[in-house]
Amino acid sequence: MEPKIIRERLTADYDELPRQMQQAARYVLDHPADIPLLSMRRQAKEAGVQPATMTRLAKRVGFDGYEAIRDIYAAALRDPVPQTFTAKGGAQ
Protein backbone atom coordinates (compact mmCIF):
# COMPACT_ATOMS: atom_id res chain seq x y z
CA MET A 1 0.00 0.00 0.00
CA GLU A 2 1.11 3.56 -0.69
CA PRO A 3 0.60 6.86 1.14
CA LYS A 4 -1.64 7.87 -1.77
CA ILE A 5 -4.24 5.34 -0.60
CA ILE A 6 -4.15 6.76 2.93
CA ARG A 7 -4.58 10.29 1.58
CA GLU A 8 -7.55 9.14 -0.53
CA ARG A 9 -9.21 7.44 2.45
CA LEU A 10 -8.69 10.44 4.72
CA THR A 11 -9.97 12.83 2.09
CA ALA A 12 -13.03 10.69 1.29
CA ASP A 13 -13.98 10.33 4.98
CA TYR A 14 -12.95 13.80 6.13
CA ASP A 15 -16.39 15.45 6.31
CA GLU A 16 -17.79 12.52 8.30
CA LEU A 17 -15.03 12.57 10.92
CA PRO A 18 -15.51 14.09 14.37
CA ARG A 19 -13.72 17.42 14.83
CA GLN A 20 -10.72 15.97 16.69
CA MET A 21 -10.20 13.31 14.03
CA GLN A 22 -10.44 15.99 11.37
CA GLN A 23 -7.57 17.82 13.09
CA ALA A 24 -5.54 14.61 13.12
CA ALA A 25 -6.39 13.87 9.48
CA ARG A 26 -5.47 17.42 8.46
CA TYR A 27 -2.07 16.98 10.12
CA VAL A 28 -1.43 13.72 8.26
CA LEU A 29 -2.50 15.31 4.97
CA ASP A 30 -0.48 18.50 5.49
CA HIS A 31 2.70 16.97 6.96
CA PRO A 32 3.41 13.69 5.13
CA ALA A 33 7.17 13.97 5.71
CA ASP A 34 6.63 13.98 9.49
CA ILE A 35 4.65 10.74 9.56
CA PRO A 36 7.59 8.29 9.40
CA LEU A 37 10.01 10.55 11.27
CA LEU A 38 8.16 11.81 14.34
CA SER A 39 6.63 9.70 17.09
CA MET A 40 2.87 9.34 17.12
CA ARG A 41 2.75 11.27 20.39
CA ARG A 42 4.71 14.15 18.88
CA GLN A 43 2.44 14.19 15.85
CA ALA A 44 -0.62 14.24 18.08
CA LYS A 45 0.84 17.18 20.00
CA GLU A 46 1.57 19.02 16.75
CA ALA A 47 -1.99 18.31 15.55
CA GLY A 48 -3.45 19.51 18.86
CA VAL A 49 -5.11 16.18 19.69
CA GLN A 50 -4.62 13.34 22.15
CA PRO A 51 -2.47 10.40 20.98
CA ALA A 52 -5.51 8.11 21.17
CA THR A 53 -7.14 10.24 18.46
CA MET A 54 -4.36 9.30 16.05
CA THR A 55 -4.99 5.63 16.78
CA ARG A 56 -8.75 6.02 16.38
CA LEU A 57 -8.20 7.82 13.08
CA ALA A 58 -6.05 4.98 11.78
CA LYS A 59 -8.68 2.44 12.77
CA ARG A 60 -11.43 4.54 11.22
CA VAL A 61 -9.73 4.36 7.81
CA GLY A 62 -9.06 0.62 8.01
CA PHE A 63 -5.77 0.04 9.84
CA ASP A 64 -5.00 -1.86 13.04
CA GLY A 65 -3.36 1.23 14.53
CA TYR A 66 -1.35 4.31 13.74
CA GLU A 67 1.89 2.37 13.50
CA ALA A 68 0.58 0.79 10.28
CA ILE A 69 0.24 4.24 8.73
CA ARG A 70 3.75 5.19 9.87
CA ASP A 71 5.11 1.96 8.37
CA ILE A 72 3.58 2.77 4.98
CA TYR A 73 5.06 6.27 4.97
CA ALA A 74 8.43 4.90 6.13
CA ALA A 75 8.48 2.37 3.30
CA ALA A 76 7.72 5.15 0.82
CA LEU A 77 10.57 7.20 2.28
CA ARG A 78 13.02 4.32 1.86
CA ASP A 79 11.88 3.54 -1.71
CA PRO A 80 10.21 6.68 -3.10
CA VAL A 81 9.65 5.24 -6.58
CA PRO A 82 8.49 1.64 -6.62
CA GLN A 83 10.17 -0.09 -9.54
CA THR A 84 8.77 -2.97 -11.49
CA PHE A 85 10.88 -5.98 -12.33
CA THR A 86 11.05 -4.81 -15.96
CA ALA A 87 12.27 -1.34 -14.97
CA LYS A 88 14.98 -2.81 -12.76
CA GLY A 89 16.09 -5.14 -15.57
CA GLY A 90 16.28 -2.27 -18.04
CA ALA A 91 18.59 -0.34 -15.74
CA GLN A 92 21.07 -3.19 -15.79
Write the layout of secondary structure elements.
Layout (H helix, E strand, L loop, with lengths): L2 H11 L5 H12 L9 H8 L3 H10 L5 H13 L6 H7 L1
Helix pairs in contact: 2-3, 2-4, 3-4, 4-5
Structural description of this entry:
It contains six helices and no strands. With 92 residues, it is an all-alpha fold. α4 (51-60) packs across α5.
Gist of the model:
It is built from six helices and no strands. By secondary structure, it is mainly alpha-helical.
Main traits of this protein?
92 residues; mainly alpha; 6 helices; 0% strand
Helical fraction equals 55-70%
| Uncertain regions spanning at least 5 consecutive residues | none
User: Compute the gyration radius: what is it?
Assistant: 15 Å
Count helical runs: 6
Structural class: mainly alpha
Biggest pleated-sheet summary: none
Average pLDDT:
89
| Element-level helix/strand string | HHHHHH
Q: What is the distance, rounded to the nearest whole angstrom, between the alpha carbons of the first and last residues?
A: 27 Å
Strand content: under 5%
